[in-house]
């Protein structure tokens, strides 16, 4: 039983690949997530999508929207809603810092990855970011291709 738990913790690491292409990360934070029992079970089975997810402030709380957690297969009638809003848990100091930056023009908060820490708790890494322009995206792809070619030549 204990061996199984360790394996699950190490395997769960869901990334938002689209985010690094669309946004320039300025600062990253690790936040806890307020979840129901069936939600954490689905996360452990890696049935989560962060592709369209984003964070907003409602009052003084940070909420993640559009994060899809598939309903738990064995959940029955007590199952959760797949795209429900979920509260992110951060320190007050971090929340005020993020709130000030988001109120400035051009900044947003995007989840970059979801993982389970060593204590078995689900955590989300969120990034304060700014949208990239088209020429920035092209430049990043060009640099990535050049580094790939250099690594092939060195081998």
TrEMBL record:
Cited InterPro entries: SmpB, SsrA-bd_prot, SsrA-bd_prot_CS
Name this polypeptide is given: SsrA-binding protein
Organism: Flammeovirga pectinis
Spans traversing the lipid bilayer: none
UniProt keyword annotations, A-Z: Cytoplasm, RNA-binding
Chief site of localization: cytoplasm
Family matches, as Gene3D superfamilies: 2.40.280.10
GO cellular component, one term: cytosol
One term of GO molecular function: RNA binding
HAMAP family: SmpB
Cellular location(s): Cytoplasm
One protein family per Pfam: SmpB
SUPFAM superfamilies reported for this sequence: Small protein B (SmpB)
NCBIfam families: PRK05422.1 (NF003843), smpB (TIGR00086)
Name of the coding gene: smpB
Family membership noted in the UniProt record: Belongs to the SmpB family.
Reported function: Required for rescue of stalled ribosomes mediated by trans-translation. Binds to transfer-messenger RNA (tmRNA), required for stable association of tmRNA with ribosomes. tmRNA and SmpB together mimic tRNA shape, replacing the anticodon stem-loop with SmpB. tmRNA is encoded by the ssrA gene; the 2 termini fold to resemble tRNA(Ala) and it encodes a 'tag peptide', a short internal open reading frame. During trans-translation Ala-aminoacylated tmRNA acts like a tRNA, entering the A-site of stalled ribosomes, displacing the stalled mRNA.
GO biological process: trans-translation; trans-translation-dependent protein tagging
CDD domains xref list: SmpB
